[in-house]
Amino acid sequence: MTGLGLAQMAFAQQSAQPQVKVNVLNVCAPSAEEQQQISGALAKIPKQPTFGPDFEVDRGRSTLDMSAGPLRISDSASTGSGSETATWVRIRHEFPTANIFATVQYSFSVDTKNMVETLVFRVRDPKDLLSIAIEDSASAVATPAVMLAANTPAGRIKLERMGKSSVVLARCGGSEGSSPPDQSAYEPLFQSASKVLQNYRALLGAGSTVPAELARTAARTHETAPAGKPPAKKASGPAEPK
Q1: Phi, psi at residue 70, to the nearest 5°?
Q2: How many domains does the structure of the chain reveal?
Q3: How far is CA 66 from CA 16, 51, 102, in A?
Q4: In the chain, pLDDT over 90 holds for what percent of residues?
Q5: How far apart are CA 185 and CA 154, in angstroms?
């Protein structure tokens, strides 16, 4: 009887433990339903919006800590130092109250290896859809001005939903020993997202604002850098006999 009671208690404790549900996103090949959701969300973005009077332009320099987000910065963080710095510019505008979206925010960040553009639309009165994010990236071998003028195509689309897992479509490369997956079926979605990104680059003045603000950040970083140690004075030798 004692053994049966202990077994029942152990079973009750296991049943009381909360179940952990893990959602795996197939970002390379979303389902047909998810493709329709992405297409419908992109179609809601206004092509010729009227912005409200409030806006924001920020710039800064941030230290990327590998221990804080190794999955996000492992490609750009330098090995050995444990951290990498990035400079960034952020432009935010508000939409009028009649618009389905409350704000649009454009950000541009650059580190020693990569440049990343992100455009985020936040829904004003979310019921299912919370936000739409479009992202692209390029190697930092070129300047930000060159990347902006080249209209780099979108490489990632993300729909954040209320109480549900996100819907994501991303350009995927091949793994070791295998070729990249065939994503030709999703090219219309990438093209639609790229047109939105290109349009809002111009509407938000990113082509001129981003290079100018990055230059100011670089100048400020140079001003606040610690000064180098003064050169050591050369020790004087013994006086020569006269």
Answers
A1: -65, -30
A2: 1
A3: 36, 38, 33
A4: 64
A5: 15
SS3 content of the chain, % helix, strand, coil (to 5): 30, 25, 40
As a whole number of angstroms, the distance between CA 217 and CA 152 comes to 23
The residue whose two tokens read 């050591």 is: 232
What backbone phi and psi angles, to 5 degrees, belong to 133? -125, 135
Residue 5 lies in a domain: no
107 close to 89: Cβ distance less than 8 angstroms: yes
Cβ proximity of 98 and 157 under 8 Å: no
Task: Tell me how crowded residue 77 is: count the other CB atoms within 10 A of its CB.
Answer: 22
Kindly tell me the sign of the dihedral angle through the C-alpha atoms of 137, 163, 65, 74. negative
> Considering the domain boundaries, does residue 234 fall inside one?
no
Look at 23-37, 98-112, 154-168, 213-227 and tell me which has the smallest mean pLDDT.
213-227
What dihedral angle (degrees, nearest 10) is formed by the CA atoms of 185, 186, 188, 193? 180
Provide the residue range defining the domain that includes 28. 24-173+183-223
23-57 pLDDT tens trace: 556 899 999 999 999 999 999 999 999 999 999 99
Residue 195 lies in a domain: yes
In a domain, 196, yes or no: yes
CA–CA distance, 13 with 154 (Å, rounded to integer): 49
Tokens of 12: 């009750």
Strands of 101-110's sheet in order across: 55-65, 83-94, 101-110, 114-123, 129-139, 156-161, 167-170
Q: How far apart are CA 109 and CA 115, in angstroms?
A: 6
